[in-house]
Amino acid sequence: MTDNDVITRWVEGYERAWKSNDPADIRAIFTEDAEYRTRPHRQPWRGHDEIVAKWIENGDGPDDVTFEWEPVLVSAETAVVRGKTDYVDDSIYHNLWVVQLAPDGRATSFTEWWMEEPKGGEPASE
């Protein structure tokens, strides 16, 4: 299995958990002691119990979102993923994820950066 296969399987698991909000799906993609950072400067959610609780508390519905992604950089231990999240309310977010992977393909650390795309074709300020 290639490093790209590992991150593809992980992102597919993430999407499955995103749509289901099922604790088993969420636990399946993180190690027991994983850290999940919703923004780089925030304190992480730590371990399965906190990750599951916070995930569900902040969860989207199964039909609320579509997601496209591509790997930017992938090694055996680290993957950087660029994504685009489209919500049914017409909000669009651009994402950058850094995923630290255990040998079994689960994440030991996940950090996301995201920014909302301006609505109505407004130019982004430089």
What is this structure, in a nutshell?
This protein has helices at 3-20, 23-28, 47-57, and strands spanning 30-37, 45-46, 65-74, 78-87, 92-101, 107-116.
Question: How does this model look, in words?
Answer:
The chain is an alpha+beta fold and 126 residues long. It has one domain (3-117): Roll (Nuclear Transport Factor 2, Chain: A). It is 28% helix and 40% strand. It has helices at residues 3-20, 23-28, 47-57, and strands spanning 30-37, 45-46, 65-74, 78-87, 92-101, 107-116. It has a six-stranded mixed beta sheet.
Note the topology:
Layout: H1 3-20, H2 23-28, E1 30-37, E2 45-46, H3 47-57, E3 65-74, E4 78-87, E5 92-101, E6 107-116
Parallel strand pairs: 1-6
Antiparallel strand pairs: 1-2, 3-4, 4-5, 5-6
Features:
6-stranded mixed beta sheet, Nuclear Transport Factor 2, Chain: A, 126 residues, 3 helices, 28% helix
